[in-house]
Amino acid sequence: MTPHISILSKSHCELGEGPFYCERRETLFWFDITNRRRYAFDFKSGLETSKPIPEMASAMAVIDDEHDLIFTESGLWSWELGTGCWAPVCSIETDDDLTRSNDARVHRSGAIWLGTMGKSAAASAGAIYHYRQGVLTKLFSDITIPNAICFSPQGDTAFYTDTKTRKLMRVAVNVEDGLPKEKPQIHFRQPEKDIGGLDGAICDGDGSVWNARWGSGRLDVYTRYGNRAASIQLPVSQPSCPAFVGSNHIAVTSALEGMDDKAREADTHAGQVVLLEFQNPIKPCFEPRVLI
Q: Which residues pair with 255 in a beta bridge?
């Protein structure tokens, strides 16, 4: 598995995260959490643009043709595409100024799982929530850095990690609503010798999890059985999250955060979006529309 690798974006994000590909618009979106911006790359025109966001934001979903759902430090917001107007959907941890949004992914039922964390990555400051049609449910507490949220193509299994634990977890969920129905189990335990930590992830049509390994410059692939099947070297040291772009491309965001001047000089593509093109098609799983 040796894809052709190129650099998609011109911009260097301090904390690039939350890549989301909209098939209808043929556009990849992503966020710079620290600098409060949403970026977009239009594959039809080849144009990259960005817009400011009122708060730290890290992930998104599609509500309908006129509205996107944005996950920010205060919760979920509806963003009207034509006017740019924001409307509140659901408040999350608004009583805690020290936390922000991080990872998120939409289940096939239209539910969305949402991870929060401390703005300074304080131990156990975050949580993972489930939201669907106006109901917010806390699933897991005492999370330090929630990541790798994704779902099997059948919708019967959810994956996630608390990066600090070095464990990729799986949990059986209801296909109808995306709520857990059993206790989480360890899917993959990251060896201590491994450099870096489990970050954002996606699940393909075969049930394999593609995970960005922060600090190691790698995109790892884990089978449905919990084995690491492949490890792809990337031209960025801090990849944060992948997203499917069509049937033979994966985009991966990255970050400059925490790097000193010497490290930034050495990592010339840090903070940019990397694009992987595979010779043999992969089976992408694109996120459905979210039910608010």
A: 15
Q: 282 by DSSP, 3-state: which?
A: coil
Catalytic-labelled residue, pool 68, 162, 177, 199: 199
Question: What are residue 27's phi and psi, to 5 degrees?
Answer: -135, 135
Q: What is the enclosing helix (H) or strand (E) of 266?
A: helix 261-266
Radius of gyration of the chain (CA): 17
Q: What is the mean pLDDT of residues 124-133?
A: 98
- Which residues lie closer than 8 Å to 46 by C-beta, 6 or more apart? none
Q: What pLDDT does 246 receive?
A: 87
State residue 34's pLDDT score.
97
Tell me if residue 199 is catalytic: yes
**Tokens coding 98:** 């020290």
Q: Which residues contact 274 (CB under 8 A, 6 or more apart)?
A: 5, 6, 7, 8, 234, 235, 236, 239, 251, 252, 254
Residue reference for tokens 């608004």: 94
pTM exceeds 0.85: yes
Rounded to the nearest 5°, which phi and psi values hold at 207? Answer: 90, 5
State which H helix or E strand residue 105 sits in: strand 99-106
